[in-house]
């Protein structure tokens, strides 16, 4: 108790004067300071070891925000600033970044549907608004494959994800069909938002949406901000999976995409939109990580 009082008021009275008044030998006080610093260093080193273990366990894809969530799951509660300091300044650990995409070149206009979202990417309930898009990936032999994914704006979960050799309306329909079959009940008054790609403006895709009571919505040409949730998902998808591994066969790629979308992204990875819960925790009301959602210190 006396040591803490001296440490707190040393600037007001001076260390020597306080030590004499309390009858404490200087060596005893300085040994106390050394022990205090040693305990702090031991705690800090333990946290740094845990950060390195988590970072390498998930292949370096975690930034400081996600790392803070995984630390809290291990009962280590730190502010974002502290985790950022440990990762970037002390351990020099940075999350994997994706390669920059080439510039957009506007093509000929297609038949389009109005933008019903107008960049309002919030849904009041599940299966109210879905977003979809395509991206490309490469196999080790240089051949290109295309992935079509649908996410639910309610919790940002992946509803369906399919990969094929051709970027066609058939792949878009297959993905949408898989998404509909994955639901216990057929969604009502569902809005499907996409870009103006020919796959989504084709006669086959339009008729399929009409047959299943789906209302189409489309973003403006060459404006990725109108479909920002899908752009964000594919950014994460490529940074955390595609740019880190090589895939020799279609089977390897399909398995990796399935594991990433339905296991890692939906059930393990914390999402900032869901208040750093996983999409499934947000969808089903699981609150086992309530203590993670404290204000940043």
From TrEMBL:
Gene3D superfamilies: Ribonuclease H-like superfamily/Ribonuclease H (3.30.420.10)
SUPFAM superfamilies, per the entry: Ribonuclease H-like
Domain (Integrase catalytic) ranges: 110-287
PROSITE patterns per UniProt: INTEGRASE (PS50994)
Pfam hit, one: HTH_21
Record-level GO BP terms: DNA integration
GO molecular function: nucleic acid binding
InterPro entries for this protein: HTH-like_dom (IPR025948), Integrase_cat-core (IPR001584), RNaseH-like_sf (IPR012337), RNaseH_sf (IPR036397), Transpos_IS3 (IPR048020), Transposase_IS3/IS150/IS904 (IPR050900)
PANTHER family tied to this protein: TRANSPOSASE INSF FOR INSERTION SEQUENCE IS3B-RELATED, TRANSPOSASE INSO FOR INSERTION SEQUENCE ELEMENT IS911B-RELATED
Role played: Involved in the transposition of the insertion sequence.
Protein name per its UniProtKB record: IS3 family transposase ISRgn1
């Amino acid at each position: 108790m006396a040591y803490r009082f001296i440490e707190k008021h040393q600037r007001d009275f001076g260390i020597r004067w306080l030590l004499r008044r309390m009858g404490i030998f200087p060596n005893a006080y300085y040994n106390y300071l050394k022990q205090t610093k040693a305990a702090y260093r031991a705690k800090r080193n333990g946290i740094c070891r845990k950060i390195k273990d988590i970072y390498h366990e998930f292949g370096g894809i975690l930034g400081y925000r996600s790392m803070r969530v995984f630390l809290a799951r291990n009962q280590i509660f730190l502010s974002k600033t502290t985790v950022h300091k440990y990762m970037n300044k002390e351990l020099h650990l940075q999350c994997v970044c994706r390669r920059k995409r080439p510039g957009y070149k506007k093509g000929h206009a297609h038949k389009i549907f109005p933008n019903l979202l107008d960049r309002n990417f919030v849904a009041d309930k599940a299966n109210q608004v879905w977003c979809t898009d395509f991206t490309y990936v490469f196999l080790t032999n240089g051949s290109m494959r295309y992935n079509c994914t649908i996410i639910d704006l309610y919790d940002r979960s992946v509803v369906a994800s399919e990969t094929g050799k051709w970027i066609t309306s058939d792949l878009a329909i297959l993905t949408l069909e898989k998404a509909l079959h994955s639901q216990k009940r057929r969604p009502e008054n569902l809005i499907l938002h996409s870009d103006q790609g020919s796959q989504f403006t084709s006669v086959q895709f339009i008729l399929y949406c009409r047959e299943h009571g789906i209302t189409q919505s489309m973003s403006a040409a060459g404006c990725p901000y109108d479909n920002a949730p899908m752009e964000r998902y594919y950014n994460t998808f490529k940074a955390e999976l595609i740019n880190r591994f090589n895939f020799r066969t279609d089977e390897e790629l399909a398995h990796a995409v399935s594991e990433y979308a339905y296991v890692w992204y939906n059930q393990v990875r914390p999402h900032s939109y869901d208040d750093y819960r996983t999409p499934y925790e947000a969808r089903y009301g699981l609150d086992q990580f309530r203590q993670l959602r404290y204000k940043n210190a």
